[in-house]
Amino acid sequence: MKTEESLYIKILIWAYEKQESGFRWGELEKEFGLSNVQKEWIMKIFRSNMPAAENLVDHIYSNQADEHKYFITAKGTSRAVDYLNLKVAKKNSRRAEIIALIAIAIGVIVGITQICVQLKIY
Fold first, then answer.
1. DSSP per-residue string spanning 15-42
2. Looking at the domain assignment, is residue 46 inside a domain?
3. Predicted TM-score (pTM) of this structure
């Protein structure tokens, strides 16, 4: 069953990939084609009125460009890395499951072959 990643995860990973280059809020809106409701939701989830350490993204004001640039915070990075590690773990567990099933099938085949050989000898 293929499930599409949620908007939260997509934005979190996108911001994580931007790392030190950061992004402008307009880039985020354009990248994901956000509706007004989604913009409000994202602002609340990623940039709430909490201390900067609690937000997933934070901004730095640049006088040179007269704009705000946003960067993923340590908390956001931690969540993105956790998610990416989970994806890798899922992939590896699926691979391990396939290897285990192949090993069981080989064991069954070898067992049946041994039984057949033993019956023909006696």
1. HHHHGGG-B-HHHHHHHHT--HHHHHHH
2. yes
3. 0.72
